[in-house]
Design a protein that fits this description.
The chain folds into three domains: about 5-95, Golgi alpha-mannosidase II (Immunoglobulin-like), CATH 2.60.40.1180; about 110-170 and about 255-305, Galactose-binding domain-like (Jelly Rolls, Sandwich); about 175-240, no CATH class. Helix content is about 5%, strand content about 50%. The protein has two helices and 26 strands. The strands form seven sheets. The protein has a five-stranded antiparallel sheet with strand order 2-3-9-5-6, with no helix packed on it. A hairpin with a 2-residue loop joins strand 22 (about 260-265) and strand 23 (about 270-275).
Length: about 300
Amino acid sequence: MPPVLRVLSGETGGWVHALRRVDRERRDVLFIANQNTNDAARAFTFHAPDASGAPEVWDAMRGEVTAVPWRKEGDGVSFDLTLEGYESALVRFVKRDAGRPARLTSVSRPVATLPVLPDASADPVVYPVAPDNALTVSQVTGSVFQGVVTVSPELLADGRNAYLVCDMEGRHGSKDTLRILKATYAAIDGAGSADVTRFVSERVRGGARVVPVLPSILGGDPAYGHVKTLTVEYEDDGKRATVSARDGARITLRPQAETAAAVRVNGAYAGGFIGKPCRVNITRHFQPGSNTVRVEPFGVQNVRVETY
């Protein structure tokens, strides 16, 4: 069976996969996934046998369709595509070049960069968080960045595109901001309980963020038939939460931050991302003058607008 996609250049490591289909308009569509676990971007040149037309990259999360360098070659189409670690791309071959903006890569350089000045008065975002096999769900306050950027009309002239770009903060905040208020290991039928606040506190001071709900750790084997739960009340950076889980599960006191964000510009949803690259095309929501930008729910830093 011939390959659906050939790699002409670029190091796959055996972890770049492709799925090929034909849509209802009889156009070839490729789903290409870079499943290499490191964060480094990888540049590839692919060849799609028997394909015809111009390849476009469709990104539903970021709400954009972009063009990549391509050429008709041999029995199909060859094209260049750069993918970050864990990034995937949907490539559709259209009949003719529609003049889409060029897809940015790690080596693209902006025409101009504007810092987004933070507004400390932004309202927080609140969302539910639960551990594995949780019995209870607590409302946890997420991180919000809100700021203002002023754009001159000239900066958006000549068909330029504006992108909201940011860097993600550290995977965890300082462990010094996490404080255990109370931890109880108790049978759900009321047949006994134990205060394990000291144990959980010591575990947190040691740098742990996950507490397994195991009888051998939390106070010996429970009586036969008495299923127990661990309930932890804690405070993290001034915000309180309570989580609870059964035997055999685990409690995550501070979920690992995701490389993900939802972006709003002047109150309108502009798109988002899960994984790198940490940017969203916000051109259609931008206006000359003052613009308000909001990024949530994980911590970000060095928020800026880049024009290309």
